[in-house]
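Methods, example record. To illustrate the input and output format used throughout this study, we show the complete record for Cytidyltransferase-like domain-containing protein. The sequence lines were provided to the predictor; the line carrying structure tokens was produced by it.
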Amino acid sequence: MDSRSKIVLPAELPAGTRLASGYFDPLLTVHAAWLAEARGASDKLAVIIKDPPVPILSARARAELVAALKVVDFVVLDQPSLPAADVQLEQRDAAAAAAFVAHVRQRQG
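The corresponding predicted structure is encoded as:
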């Protein structure tokens, strides 16, 4: 299965799908754990790809990476018409990305 087929338009999301949102820029191992936690007992999990203030990767590239995660059933690019996510990871996501970038710079230094 080509995981890119999980990237859908908002109208294609089944009713009752749990929504999580985040930047995923870059996608880190902790994201898989957060998304598994966000899914909980829900039958379906959709992830909304939001744009960070200064993105490293394009939204489409991040969507393709997130779609490859087994715990994720659907991925949508952020749009004003989308409802607020049940689980919003943006703040945790930004902190994890900053820590990752600091770690990389320290190792390069």
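Annotations derived from this record:
The chain has a mean pLDDT of 95.
The longest strand covers residues 18-22.
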